[in-house]
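ok posting inputs for the thiamine diphosphate job
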Amino acid sequence: MPRTVLEPRFAVEYLSILDSDGNLDAALEPDLGPDTLRALYRAMLLGRRLDERMVRLQRQGRIGTFAPIKGQEAAQIGSVATLRPTDWMVPSFRETAAMIWRGWPIEKLLAFFAGHAEGGQPAPGQRDLPITIPVATQLPHAVGLAYAARYKGDDAVVMVYFGDGATSEGDFHEALNFAGVWHVPVVFVCQNNQWAISVPLKKQTHSRTLAQKALAYGIPGIQVDGNDVLAVYAASREAVDRARGGGGPTLIECVTYRLSMHTTADDPTKYRSEEEVREWERKDPLTRFAAYLEKKNLLEEGLEAQIDAEIAAAIARFEALGPPDPLTIFDHVYAERPPHLEAQREELAARLRRAGPAPPPTPPGPALPMRGQRTTRR
Ligand SMILES: Cc1ncc(C[n+]2csc(CCOP(=O)(O)OP(=O)(O)O)c2C)c(N)n1
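and the output
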């Protein structure tokens, strides 16, 4: 018997609408009104300015470790903006901009990164999951949510975020497999930012794209220019509408770049070159979108100052909370605390009693950029 071709149809598309030189493919331009375009840009700029401010807050000891989003604003805002409030958003640990779009108050996120457990709790009725640190574990949760939504006759769509490194985890493959088999309304948004801490994409996979991994599970996969908010929006709109209409899951690979450090505990100059970073800075998602809006006369004057004031007011509200209680570190993991943790908790409580009340925080000095950190001025 001759060999026969069973599947000649596999194709992975790449979508770009507004490229880094400002070229626009008008035939693919999504039909977005001025208010939506302005809202997208505002959210991206807020994401950028807050991110830079948070790095300084961390350097000053006012918040703890966090994962900066700089460079990934279009990937997050272009996708999350296609959801309804009644849809579900499932973040990993690098989705500050997407979370703010979903209504998380800035001071609440700051509280989370300062150690207040309440900072990580979605508001009652808010259809978001909390930040997930264990890589890729949120993917099966998202599929479960989508399965439950469909079971209940709810038309909600679930959007779940993860990085390129997460695609090497078993959870990623299990989630895509279940999503395909159950045909549930979930949109997988992979922010391929080229690095998983110090592991480059070429050591993560031998596949030409991450999008093509969807094909093995019988679901569509598309690669988009993740620094092009219009392309991310268009691909996400299509995937969300398909999911809501009963057409099943989609994997969207947003090709982007982490311009800053992995977390504030990382020094990227140890493992990647200045030239590489500079090359991606030329593809900055905000620069090209600002130029696009300028041509349409939609760029608001004074927006940056307005955003900075909003951030400053949120920081003041956050700092009014005071320091978190260190003993809360023992809460929430176990319903009944095991004896060894009970003993550790008692020991810490005794030490805190001996140490007396915490001294007032020292006033922050001038914020100097650290190695691996760049600040944006526009
Ligand atoms: C299961 C698990 N293994 C290892 C880690 C440590 N870790 C935190 S982030 C990270 C890299 C994740 O890379 P990627 O999925 O590309 O996302 P990115 O950080 O680039 O957004 C690793 C290995 C973890 N948090 N969870």
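notes: The CA atoms of residues 106 and 314 lie 6 Å apart. The longest strand covers residues 186-192.
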